[in-house]
Amino acid sequence: MDDTFWIALTFAMLCGLPCVILGFLNGVKQKRSLLASWDDSSFSDPVLVGRIMGASSFITGSLIILSCTGVAMKLVSMSFAGVAFCVSVATPLLAGLYVNVMYTKERS
Prior knowledge:
Elements: H1 3-27, H2 46-72, H3 78-103
Helix pairs in contact: 1-2, 2-3
């Protein structure tokens, strides 16, 4: 096994797995306090917002793990993995923008 295999495995375990775990805790267990500057009173439906943000973190971690596995097994190229990483990073950003637009309460 070459160095690429071990680097991809390490990256998947240190970056992908924590995102999957965080997504599970946010989305399923409703540990919304793990989200940065979380305030339940800021959102009209905090449970749904927690599920959306948890799902986006879970998708991010899953994409990272799948692309690292593909690189380690030489099924995908590094450029494809780079695109997958960019998409995975954009997922929670887009989800955060969506929940801020759709579920933030109006302040008076």
